[in-house]
């Protein structure tokens, strides 16, 4: 017995336009149309911007940022993103209000059907979201490539004929198909604006950038739990704070001054945590992000802060505003440099990942800090031995002095290495 299937009433491949449910509202005297598209639809309908090419209506796209967004979406089933913004000259698309629906909602907002002619796609440009759109293109390409590779592997497995190998290959194909299906099941918002020139589009982009408040590093540290350094900073500085940081870490400001009661910003604490883990200029690799035990990183940072408070009890006893006016130990740069020295002499793992014996015990490092303690008065004036290191800004005659060493990358490294040599007795301190 045979069955017949009725053909579709319309073959979508021959359609001349795409249709979307959309909303329309007035903003700045213009119509702004909002729709939601699956990632697969977006990639098919909006071209990826070129990488590294100067454009008349937007900034240059950086490949690294695009790849980072693709990886973020790929690795995070609960990813999030604000709406993208596109623009095209007036008349490129057509919006037809649904009057029966619009009678039920306040004026100023309309629900309708958006018609996008397929032969007009090249007229549609990106206003805001270039790196995300390119990243989503890369993600879809990556998922298609993984599926193709899995199917090739299955074909080779069938040639071999071993059932266990075939079953394993089938499982990989299924997993790749499920991953690719995310591109159709997951959606992103798109705001579409009709403007008539690249100049007008650039002005809108500039207005968005100028009036958007970026996140400080301190705020990012508290919000972004995807990185081990941020998690540990939040743990020891907020959730289960160690004594020197309890109620004394500012998670909103990167720089502290004046009467701010906090001792350190979350950015500075994060810099110290990272330094005690990977060194003064070290970066946490992707492999380390995946494999590192947070407790180990927290232990390193806690040991360093405990060594500090043992050698410099004023960190606990003196109010932060007063400490900033009278002591170098309130300088985040000094603390980071000391953390670099601590890592150098206390690390148990070298740069290759091999276990090594620490060059100093924790108490020996504390003893070194106590030798520094009598020389931490601030400001640093002309003639102060700290200036002989070459890592402090010059102090002219009669000036008010300086409160911290230079924070340039090469100076951070140099002063940290110098302090390491002081601690190990390789070089004599100038005091």
Please report the number of helical segments.
16
Structural class, from helix and strand content? alpha+beta
Whole-number mean pLDDT = 92
What characteristic shape results from the CA principal axes? globular
Give the helices and strands as they follow along the chain.
EEHHEEHEEHHEHHHEEHHHHHHHH
For the termini, the CA-CA separation is: 100 Å
**In percent, how much strand structure appears in the residues?**
5-15%
Can you list the strand order of the major beta sheet? 4-5-1-2-7-3-6
Tally of strands: 9
Quickly count the domains.
2
Give the oligomeric state of the chains in this entry, treating copies of one chain as homo and distinct chains as hetero: single chain
Poorly predicted runs of 5 or more residues: none
Q: In this structure, how is the largest beta sheet organized?
A: 7 strands, mixed
What Rg is obtained from the alpha carbons, in whole angstroms?
29 Å
Helix share bin:
40-55%
Q: Could you please describe the fold and organization of this structure?
A:
The chain has helices at 39-45, 63-75, 99-102, 130-160, 163-185, 198-211, 217-223, 228-239, 266-278, 286-291, 294-311, 314-317, 320-326, 332-346, 362-372, 409-424, and strands at 17-27, 30-38, 84-88, 94-97, 109-117, 125-128, 187-194, 249-250, 264-265. With 431 residues, the protein is α+β, with helices and mostly antiparallel strands. It has 2 domains: 15-211, no CATH class; 217-424, no CATH class. Strands 4-5-1-2-7-3-6 form a 7-stranded mixed sheet. A two-stranded parallel ribbon has the order 8-9. The chain is globular. The mean pLDDT is 92.
